[in-house]
Design brief:
The chain is α+β, with helices and mostly antiparallel strands. Helices cover 27% and strands 22% of the residues. It has one domain (11-158): 3-Layer(aba) Sandwich (Cytidine Deaminase, domain 2). The protein is built from four helices and seven strands, in the order E-H-E-E-H-E-E-H-E-E-H. 34% of the residues are buried.
């Protein structure tokens, strides 16, 4: 038997410890929570993806009565970025969650499908994407989506 330990690096920052650029992207993600369509869960999620050219793509969760037909905020933003700016890497992705009249105290974590899309986005452009998960008590900062999904599954895995 062989045992392998997987580790992930995450830093937790208070609002005033974040850079101006990080705060600006998070503010857009927070604004996007107002545009979510979540009549079933009442859990508003907003995302902002900053591209290498400085453009910020926005996303908000979109629910549907046929639950699998909805889409998470992260994927809305990343797919829009890929469709509208296919040659621009995503350098930062911020996510914020709002429910019961306030932003969540602790950051919300992306679902597994979103983590896979985030990782594929990094792999597509050959670079890391900083991930910012906002919470009132602190923001989790990851240098790469790979820190959220350490056992990667990418195109090369399909080649055998």
């Amino acid at each position: 038997m062989k045992e392998i330990n997987l580790t992930a690096k995450m830093r937790v920052y208070n609002w005033n410890e974040l850079s101006e650029e990080q705060r600006a992207v998070i503010e857009i993600a927070k604004e996007q929570t107002e545009r979510s369509y979540c009549p079933y869960s009442q859990f508003h999620v907003g995302a902002a993806a900053k591209l290498a050219n400085g453009v910020i793509m926005r996303g908000a969760n979109q629910e549907n009565a046929a639950y699998p037909s909805g889409l998470c905020a992260e994927r809305v933003a990343l797919f829009a970025a890929g469709a509208q700016y296919p040659d621009q890497p995503v350098t930062k992705l911020a996510i914020a969650c709002f429910t019961d009249g306030h932003f969540t105290a602790e950051p919300g974590a992306p679902c597994g499908a979103c983590r896979q899309v985030m990782l594929e986005t990094e792999h597509r452009y050959g670079g890391k994407m900083e991930v910012l998960l906002y919470g009132e008590n602190g923001t989790y900062v990851f240098d790469s989506a790979a820190d959220l999904l350490p056992l990667i599954f990418v195109k090369e895995n399909l080649l055998g």
